[in-house]
Amino acid sequence: MLHRTLALALLGLASACAPSSPGGGDGVAALGSGPDQIAARRGDISEAVDGLVVGHRLMAAGEFELALRAYYRASAERGVTVDILSAIGSANLRLGRVQQAEQVLRRALEQDETFVPAHNNLGVALAEQGKWGEAGLHFRNAFAFDSGRSSEIRENLRLAIEKTKETGYLEGEAHQLSLVRRGQGRFLLLETPL
Fold first, then answer.
1. Nearest-CA neighbor of 73 among 95, 89, 54, 60?
2. What gap in Å lies between CA 109 and CA 86, rounded to an integer?
3. Which tens digit of pLDDT belongs to each residue from 23-78?
4. 3-state class (DSSP) for residue 179
5. By the 8 A CB rule, do 6 and 156 touch?
6. Which candidate, 81, 92, 84, places its Cα nearest to that of 122?
7. Domain boundaries, the chain
């Protein structure tokens, strides 16, 4: 259930990021049967078609490996942009390559720390690894930068908060903190597992 919920939120954001074009009611053009789309599905991506657009269409069609190739092609043509890094991370995430997705999405956020899809999808990658505390931080950032408009991000944030509350701690083991006096006026904060 958790994986399905996060996957739906990821898919929702992937479609929200795709440029709008004719034929798609939600901002993503449907993958039709024209020559460009057929070539894209086979992997013979025409030079006349933008790799990022083709990749978004392939993601919408569930062709994640082909989408990843299209995104790499787009990076070779355009350079490595935040849009392309985020798209590559999303494709890796959908392919189950969670750690690769995490690395690429972190690189995307180094380029633009306000990029909503990268924050959300990094949160998904971290949640998949059980790192709910850090995932929650990225969902909060995505929610804030999106001004709370996306119901998918709101649901991801709610789930992360719920999971964090279940453990009672952001990450790891429970610790008891105590102050120990060291010399005159110096204190040391010690941390010991409970």
1. 54
2. 9
3. 333 332 233 334 444 444 445 544 457 889 999 999 999 999 999 999 999 999 99
4. strand
5. yes
6. 92
7. 2-193
Residue 130's H or E segment, with its range, is none
- In sequence order, the β-bridge partners of residue 59 are none
CA distance 128 to 18: 24
Tokens describing residue 182: 């060291």
SS3 label, residue 49: coil
Long-range contacts of 160-167 (CB under 8 A, 24+ apart): 160/123, 160/127, 160/132, 160/135, 160/136, 161/136, 163/127, 163/132, 163/136, 164/132, 164/133, 164/136, 167/132
151: pLDDT strictly greater than 60:
yes
Whether the Cβ atoms of residue 84 and residue 52 lie closer than 8 Å to each other = yes
- Written as six digits, the tokens of 140 are 């909060």
Q: What is the CATH number of domain 2-193?
A: 1.25.40.10
> Residue 8, Cβ neighbours under 10 Å: how many?
13
Q: Scanning the structure block, which residue is given the tokens 């798209």? A: 87
Report how far residue 99's alpha carbon sits from residue 92's, in angstroms, rounded to the nearest whole number: 9
* pLDDT for residue 187: 52
